[in-house]
Amino acid sequence: MRTVTKDTITDVFLGYIGQDTDPRFKQVMTSLVTHLHDFAREVDLTHDEWRQALQFFMWTGNITTEERNEFVLLSDVMGLSSLVDMINSHPGGTSSSVLGPFHISDAPALAIGGDMKGDVEGDLVLWQGVVKDATGTPIKGATVDIWQTAPNGMYSSQDPDQDKFSFHAILTTGADGRYAFTTVRPVSYTVPTDGPVGVILNAAGRHPWRPSHLHFIAKAAGYRELVTEVFPDDDPYLNEDTVFGVREDLVVTFVPQPAGSFPSGFDLSGKVSGPYARVDFDLVLVAV
Amino acid sequence: MRTVTKDTITDVFLGYIGQDTDPRFKQVMTSLVTHLHDFAREVDLTHDEWRQALQFFMWTGNITTEERNEFVLLSDVMGLSSLVDMINSHPGGTSSSVLGPFHISDAPALAIGGDMKGDVEGDLVLWQGVVKDATGTPIKGATVDIWQTAPNGMYSSQDPDQDKFSFHAILTTGADGRYAFTTVRPVSYTVPTDGPVGVILNAAGRHPWRPSHLHFIAKAAGYRELVTEVFPDDDPYLNEDTVFGVREDLVVTFVPQPAGSFPSGFDLSGKVSGPYARVDFDLVLVAV
Question: Lower Cβ count inside 10 Å, N or C end of chain B?
């Protein structure tokens, strides 16, 4: 090994890996380090750039807390999170999309037809659909975990003026597989730009905007968990999501409904006289 | 961009990079993200593995302090640090090698022939050489910053029983370019294994040992700074340095010298009656 050179170091590294190493670990490490070394050789990485990269990772570590995970955000804006989603997607089901950092576990239960809007100012949306399998059969007892921004562009965890579970809820389907609720229209927002990821976006001449969306996690016994997001088709950032989360089957139309047409079967039935928007979106789960 | 897929996401990412982006930043980012995406596709990276990687980076960030930089250590054991050294090496000069995390700035000056051993138990070494340019001309006024482990395998910054600058010194050459000092023989040691890097080494079936060495930073006006290490040729880990630091021209023989042969011109002259080892090692600097 004394004769390690820039052209042999990758083989030397691979030669260090023990015979009894877990085959998957060996496969991942071999590919990772080969690409890492090829990258450094390809660009003739300088000492200054290497030091800057280490400083960048130290800063990313320093700024990361329970509430803010800058490593996840870095993976998001590099396209890695979405790529992993797509690599692991299950044909026949609704596309998955990034979880993001704002999910809160154990949101309160909301009955079918329940309301998340409350007194909040914003455009009323009636959202409904069916959780079903790939053959179209409704799934009973599926849970649909929903979260979104308030109209001010902030999730509850970012906003001291919101309750902890504001715009977070979990619905459970009945025999018809149907879920339905009312809410406000979500808004476009920027990922945090006051840290290392902001520096990268700025250096690359990229904006930090995400198109507006609702998040969903759908679960049912015997089916693969689906983590996804759904986007309105008229959002200005739809074609340039900074975290690469948009998939064609996750784009929906918020269909305007005339005043006086609000249906029965909702918490707000009888209380809404003006116009609203309606979204129909089915969630298709893939069997395990 | 709505039709982003696992096969198009890399091009979508590259398309996000602005026209006015610094060309070098664009080149580095293009290569880095292309390799990152190719890696994920090549191994079909799973969500669990992605989450483990993020946890790994969070842990690496948490354990990193002013005194312990786990990101540098990770770069070292992945071979990236040594690869960057070799990519940026200057033909005609002494090879560079990893800086490592134990250098302390502003070590005290030591006169030519000075002693670093003091009262410490260990094998006495007389070390000398010439700082010269690629044509062999001695360089006057070059500084040679030296640091090494004590015989217990610890650098001063790791060891509360050592003074801050124990086994750290800076020599300055005269007109003959010569530097010379006495010290103890350094010892093999392990990189820290109680953190994320230890987990990686263990999973890969790798040991954490580095062959013994002395560190040098040589500087002189008009020449490129040389950061390097020098290794005894009889160290058992010479051919399997866990951070890939060994280069053929950095390996020296510790030549045994008989009792009664200690020369004049050293702080210890007249005080050493037993055997010792002698190393001759010239440092060749490349002009800027």
Answer: C
